[in-house]
Amino acid sequence: MTNLHEVVIASHQHVQFSSDTRTATFVDGQYKVISDRGAYRFSAFTIQDYGEVVFDSGNMKLSLGALEMFYRSRLISKQLLLESNEIVLHPGSVMDLSGGGYEANQGPGAGTKVSHLIM
């Protein structure tokens, strides 16, 4: 997917993203930024009312400037590494990451243990 910066999933639509796809920026006849397979990069990602987005496998990466999910929208993945500057989850929206993610005190956001406190 080339030069796609803002993604809007319309109401009542279902979209599935593959772990084989890449995002890229193409400027002046050259690719400037190419993501790894299964790593998506967008400046804005919006899922409108009742919209549904599925990432088809675990270990996918989603890098966003902003994520906004409206009423009864769903983002579904077994496991997802999500990086975003802003996340807005409106009432009724759901992020279903049924793979469970990292165990307690594991993974990149685990924090550090200091005198029996987790920070």
Quick check: average pLDDT? 84
Distance between the termini: 39 Å
Biggest sheet layout: 4 strands, parallel
Kindly report the spatial arrangement of strands forming the biggest sheet: 1-5-7-9
Shape: globular
Strand element count: 12
Helix/strand order, N-terminal first: EEEEEEEEEEEE
List the quaternary state of the chains.
Answer: single chain
Radius of gyration: 16 Å
Q: Give the number of helices.
A: 0
Helix vs. strand class: mainly beta
List keywords for this structure.
119 residues, mainly beta
List the helices and strands and how they pair.
Layout: E1 6-9, E2 14-17, E3 24-27, E4 30-34, E5 39-47, E6 52-55, E7 60-69, E8 74-77, E9 80-89, E10 94-97, E11 113-114, E12 117-118
Parallel strand pairs: 1-5, 2-6, 5-7, 6-8, 7-9, 8-10
Antiparallel strand pairs: 3-4, 11-12
Briefly characterize the structure:
The protein has 119 residues and is mostly beta strands. It contains no helices and twelve strands.
Structure description:
With 119 residues, this protein is mostly beta strands. The chain has one domain (6-118). The protein is built from no helices and twelve strands. The strands form four sheets. It has a four-stranded parallel sheet with strand order 1-5-7-9, with no helix packed on it. The chain has a four-stranded parallel sheet with strand order 2-6-8-10, with no helix packed on it.
